[in-house]
Amino acid sequence: IHNKTGDTYMVELRSDGRDGKLVVLQNEDSLWFWKFDSADWHARLLEGKHVRVVTHGYRLPFFSCFPNITEMYELEP
């Protein structure tokens, strides 16, 4: 499920671990990680597609902070 709020894309991914836990991440541009194409990344995220992501940051519910996707690799099903 994808959701856009301002310049931030919110992404829900199901982990491939044994528990299959649902993880909520954000996908936004980041000068620090030299990432300026989050809209293109978001377009490549299709439901049912297998991807491996690298994130930076922490989930801080009190501040509504989510880890940001800084790398994404498409996997073969």
Q: Could you please describe the fold and organization of this structure?
A:
The protein has 77 residues and is mostly beta strands. Helix content is 9%, strand content 39%. It has one helix spanning 38-44; strands at residues 2-5, 8-14, 22-27, 51-56, 68-74. The chain is globular, with a radius of gyration of 12 Å.
Which terms summarize this structure?
mainly beta, two-stranded antiparallel sheet, three-stranded antiparallel sheet, globular, about 80 residues
Report a brief summary of the structure:
By secondary structure, the chain is mainly β. Helices cover 9% and strands 39% of the residues.
Query: What's the pLDDT, averaged over the residues?
Result: 82
**Helix content class:** under 10%
Shape: globular
Rg over CA atoms? 12 Å
> How would you write the strand order of the largest sheet?
1-2-3
Number of helices: 1
Return residue spans where pLDDT drops below 50 for at least 5 consecutive residues: none
Report the order of strands and helices: EEEHEE
What amount of the residues lies in strands? 35-45%
Number of strands: 5
Summarize the main sheet.
Answer: 3 strands, antiparallel
Class computed from helices, strands and strand pairing:
mainly beta
End-to-end separation = 19 Å
